[in-house]
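Chapter summary example.
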Amino acid sequence: MLTPRNLALALLLTLLPAAAAAQQAGPQSVRPLPLRLGGNHEFGAVAGYSAFSGPIWGYDQNVRYLPVILRYSYLLTQHRNWSLRYAPELTALSMMCERAPSPTNPAAPVCHFGAGFTPEGFQVDYLPVRKLQPFLSNDGGFIYYADRVLSPQGSQWMYTIDFGAGVNIFVRPHDAVTFGYRYQHLSNANISVHNPGTDADTFYLGFSHFHTRATE
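The structure predicted for these 216 residues follows.
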């Protein structure tokens, strides 16, 4: 005889196996999402040193170069295995030391100090979900020095372009240590009588903090 009590008991017996099956399947069906390293905005600083000058574009090769750079980058696009960032830079300090007299500057040895800005900067990061992320970079801008560099008839303005590679090592989800190398050309683009130019083989070390706004 079907009574409310029997109906309730039948429904309970029907639901118990389904609830037990859901409880067993629950932990297996929920997979943790991969931890996203970095963020949309990067704020960082790097310091580098070039102990020798390269021979590709520059004329003056007896030069030592030391830059201190403040970095910002914004994530333009991210894919499974790579991402692209717009990465302008502010050169807070550029020290260029001519170590010995040269045909273009008999007044050496002398050190020059300047600062500049790099509006054209892009960086391609690889393996964006790994703690160790290799990258390729390209930058272009200018540096203004306190005096004429590489030649008494040279210019205080030096235009720069560089190509580089390195690796970001994430020590925390939003903090990374950077090791990198750049081949950088510096010259005045013939805006003065002399344009010897120089190339810097710069190895650098840096630190960056990444951040993503809650609305993004």
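To summarize the output: The chain is about 10% helix and 55% strand.
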